[in-house]
UniProtKB/TrEMBL annotation:
This is Poly-beta-hydroxybutyrate polymerase N-terminal domain-containing protein. Pfam families: PhaC_N (PF07167). InterPro entries: PhaC_N. Residues 36-135 form the Poly-beta-hydroxybutyrate polymerase N-terminal domain. It comes from Glutamicibacter soli. One of its GO terms (biological process) is poly-hydroxybutyrate biosynthetic process. It comes from the Bacteria.
Length: 135
């Protein structure tokens, strides 16, 4: 539908840029709400402006993707695939999944002199072994 209506697509993009800019600006002013998303429950996602900005921009992108997906036909097999893979991709790209971007994981890494990272790798290897190389 959006491909047939370039003005709607342009408005979607403008809204995404506006939401992202608002999220990033709000991170520095302390405006906005705390996230109810379980990935960002730790208070450091709110207290640190950089972490808050990363969180809020990511959530704005997820919200925009959800709105875009809502324009797809309901129940169509291809639409269901797009929904599934979009959700998987955005979840994988969450800043909570990356040591350098996750304030709680960074702090734990420093507190344990890196042992928390080694423990995580051991868990990954155990999971791979149990699943014959599959997660």
């Amino acid at each position: 539908k959006l491909a047939q209506n370039p003005f709607a697509l342009a408005q979607f993009q403008i809204d995404l840029w506006a939401d992202s800019a608002k999220a990033w600006a709000g991170a520095w002013t302390g405006e906005g709400e705390d996230s109810k998303d379980r990935r960002f429950r730790d208070g450091r996602w709110t207290s640190d402006p950089v972490s808050r900005g990363l969180r809020d921009v990511h959530l704005a992108i997820e919200g925009a993707a959800d709105r875009l997906i809502e324009t797809l036909p309901e129940g169509d097999k291809d639409s269901l695939r797009v929904r599934f893979y979009t959700r998987q991709l955005l979840s994988a790209l969450s800043p909570s999944n990356y040591l350098a971007l996750n304030p709680a994981a960074r702090e734990r890494f420093l507190e344990t002199d890196g042992r928390s990272l080694l423990d995580g790798f051991r868990n990954l290897l155990d999971d791979l072994e149990r699943g014959d190389g599959r997660l």
